Amino acid sequence: MLMTWMCGCYGLVLLVLGVMGQKLPTRDEGLFQMQIRDKALFHDSSVLPDGAEISGYLFRDTPKRYYFVVEEDNTPLLVTLTPCDAPLEWRLTLQELPEDRSGEGSGEPEPLEQQKQQVTGNEGTELFTYKGNDVESFISTSSPSGLYQLEIISTEKDSNFKIYSTTTPESDQPYPELPYDPRVDVTALGRTTVTLAWKPTPTGSIMGQPIQYCVVINKEHNFKSICAAEAKMSLDDSFMIAPKPGQDFSPFDFVHFGFVPSENDFKDRSLTTNRALSNKMSRTYIPKPKVADIQKICIGNKNIFTVTDLKPDMQYYFDVFAVNTGTNMSTAYVGTFARTKEEAKQKTVELKDGKVTDVFIKRKGSKFLRFAPVSSHQRVTLFIHACLDEVQVQVRRDGKLVLSQNVEGVRQFQLRGKPKAKYLIRLRGSRKGASTLKVLASTRAGGKQPFPALPEDTRIKAFDKLRTCSSVTVAWLGTQERNKYCVYRREVSESYGEEHRRREQNQCAGPESRRKSEKVLCKYFHSANLQKAVTTETITGLEAGKSYLLDVYVVGHSGHSVKYQSKLVKTRKYC
């Protein structure tokens, strides 16, 4: 049976031994189970509780020691150590309990220095050593009684770890059991998706324990424990709070385990510990950048999962962990890795000098256009008309990036030319939906532009005070260029809202797509003074209490048109 005893770290060990023949105290199981749920009690304590997992923190090159007492011979023993974010070295030794005790029959504890010498003066019997970052265990079906010491050190960096120890490994079974085939298989592979499958843990399917599976995805390597993945996901090295100075020697800890040290003894020990640990706590923590390429997804008890939103032609590492939701303890499956398929090579569209080309792009898709002028040229004028949502435009001249911008509406770009230069244009669509564009590239200097000039603000303004039962008055901005403006109206239902209007906001759909009955008028307009480039129009012949959608189209010299933002208006019901 494993007894919890309080001992100091950094070489200070307190053992309180009773008189010869006195029986070691037994554990109140109900009280103990209640107390181990309080993580603050065992945080950074050098006591190892029986049947509970604790978390610890190591400063680099500073060993930490944990102790426990096995009071009876032939006791089963399991000690499992889980490194979280660095390889660890750990060593388990046995120090037999001394037969002779000072203060015979008095029940008084031995002097502190004498107790220290009993442990620190003897190296004990080495039972197990390990160095690495694997989850490793020491297990014995029959352990002798005595004082056990677990010493851990991290030589690479400050690190976190977990320890689980028990004297009843057969009945506890805190970690989910792996199936006979613990591998994670890739069952389907796409450009942006990978489907994983694994065999269920017997702990859930046969023993009926509460189990959920967590999947970890990253681009660097597989993880051997879930706490290693969580450490990588944290914002900096101190994702678990480092122990506070003096925490190892809390008066509450001593009283809890039945020891009542004198006030002076505690003050001496606390001061010594504060000095030792204050040097450690003065280290500067260098925050790590937030890791966006690693994610953990817990999916319940399903044993098949499809990872989505991956990048094409990219290698990913996948790990699956079975987590006992009752104990929050986990076991790692044998992870796997896979490279997503390459993005399908798209056919490049050839642009002709001075000709408008219609382009359709799927949601979140891309299109490549190529422009290779026949004659030498000094500059290239590129017109982009994004009919729906914003699109991203990139232009490379002979492989060199010369333009990268987001485009909404109509935009014109001037690119410096080079003899025999070739231009590759990449258009990336919107995440909201499919994109439609009109693209024109030209080396011809001067001449009239294919698309009409637009003001910065393409909204239609409605005047509420001029609204009647049969008419509405609206206004819109123009430019210094003389263009033709056509106004159209369409009656819509009362339920017609902004979402309907947005879906129909295709700037490339010209007046030719409208019914003749919806046409209100067409007129020419411009102003040399941009401050006065505004025009108004009163639309009559409407019905009382009805809703109408108004559209204004500006038509360029070559016949290409651009639609202003639609405006929803409503006539008065009573006049």
TrEMBL record:
Task: Report the Gene3D superfamilies cross-referenced here.
Answer: Immunoglobulins (2.60.40.10)
Q: Which cell locations does it reside in?
A: Secreted
Per its UniProt record, what Pfam families does this chain match? NDNF (PF10179), NDNF_C (PF19433), NDNF_N (PF24354)
Which InterPro entries has this protein been placed in?
FN3_dom, FN3_sf, Ig-like_fold, NDNF, NDNF_C, NDNF_Fn(III)_1, NDNF_N
Question: Could you tell me the Gene Ontology terms of the biological process aspect for this record?
Answer: extracellular matrix organization; nervous system development
TM segment ranges: none
User: Which keywords are on file for this protein?
Assistant: Glycoprotein, Neurogenesis, Repeat, Secreted, Signal
Region annotation (Disordered) maps to: 99-121
User: What residue range is the signal peptide?
Assistant: 1-21
Identify the GO cellular component terms for this protein: extracellular region
The molecular function terms of the Gene Ontology recorded here are: heparin binding
Keyword flag DNA repair: no
Which residue range or ranges hold the Fibronectin type-III domain? 176-330, 452-561
* Cited function: Secretory protein that plays a role in various cellular processes. Acts as a chemorepellent acting on gonadotropin-releasing hormone (GnRH) expressing neurons regulating their migration to the hypothalamus. Also promotes neuron migration, growth and survival as well as neurite outgrowth and is involved in the development of the olfactory system. May also act through the regulation of growth factors activity and downstream signaling. Also regulates extracellular matrix assembly and cell adhesiveness.
The entry's protein name is: Protein NDNF
Name of the gene this protein is made from: ndnf
